[in-house]
Amino acid sequence: MPPYVVKELQTKEQLDAVVDVIWKAQYSPYMPSSSIFFPVSGYTPEDRAAGISASKERLWKEHLSSSPAEHTWIFVEDSATSEIVAGSLWEWHEKNKVMDGIPKIDMYWWPNGEAREFCEEMLRQCMTPRSLWMHRPNAGVSMMVVHPEHRKRGVGGLMMQWSNRKLDEGGIEGFVEASELGRELYEKWGYRVVMKIALFLPPNKGDIWNKLAHEMMLPPWYAMWRPVNGVVKAGERNRPWQLVPPLHP
């Protein structure tokens, strides 16, 4: 087993390599819903290359415009080959930015039209648990991927170990939105399911909407919570953020 090391991302070249892993991972196995974040406009190799290039530019611009205190990319490197084999994006929150309701979602990388409206509504529903619970300082993973050839080797665990150490150093809770594929990893690292979400998108709005509902609908996923230090204190309920009522400005 090759040795792996976790590093914080510093350069565009590193992020480009992580994006290459993202594209590889989302097609092994194929996850149609990932296209809401990484769309391809056609079916040729050139269309795919254009989609990869656009996603690299978009994520780098978002990285540069975000505060390091709120947004951290990490990656895992195979120290034997210097190959980047995994990556994850962590977001740090001092307070709930959506406690007054889900904000309008702007998926600006999609052209205006019915397809964009569909993707924005799907993501809006995904954010519902955040508006219910995230009322205390917390951190959450926005994205996590491992190259298919490096799965089942402890790579995901290294990223979780890094994040749990940061959570515990800050004395804050963790919150993730997990697929069935990722649920087992998060449970191993102290997260527990607090809600299972199945999306409902109104049918028959239009041909494009119906096509995407058939092809890209997210499967049921899990809202998962990790208490401070991974431990629920005596007398506390096994649910996040219910001990403190929502605070309003």
TrEMBL record:
What is the name listed in the Swiss-Prot or TrEMBL entry for this protein? N-acetyltransferase domain-containing protein
**Record's Pfam families?**
Acetyltransf_7
Gene3D superfamilies this protein is in?
3.40.630.30
Molecular function per GO: acyltransferase activity, transferring groups other than amino-acyl groups
Describe the location of the N-acetyltransferase domain by residue ranges: 131-215
In terms of InterPro entries, this protein maps to: Acyl_CoA_acyltransferase, GNAT_dom, Trichothecene_AcTrans
Database matches in SUPFAM superfamilies: Acyl-CoA N-acyltransferases (Nat)
Q: Which organism is it from?
A: Cudoniella acicularis
Q: Which PROSITE patterns does its entry note?
A: GNAT
